[in-house]
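Before relying on records like the one below, remember that each one covers exactly one chain. Contacts with other chains, cofactors or solvent are not represented anywhere in the record.
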Amino acid sequence: QVQLEESGGGLVQPGGTLRLSCAASDSDVSFTNMGWYRQFPGKERQWVATILSGGDSSYASAVKGRFTVSTNNAKNAVYLEMNSLKPEDTAVYYCNACIGTTWHWGQGTQVTVSS
């Protein structure tokens, strides 16, 4: 069973930057569709960004222009560069990727934006 392993969360001040990473536990797999979601306390998980294997990307309006989703050449890792962070970006962030016809989720990483 392939797992997605996330890293990069933490505490950052407003206006700061964080980079989240998500990699497949099996380096031989490749993603066809990958992205990020986030979950606020007491709320449902919501979509943040998606990148397709061909490179096309899309973003939720709340993060467009501040966040950048990317992948590596092997298409077995996905990243989220978060700039100009705001307190309202505080959430647990989850990566999500399709391998073959199966969707996989990362374990989640906490991002806290606070002074």
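The longest strand covers residues 91-99.
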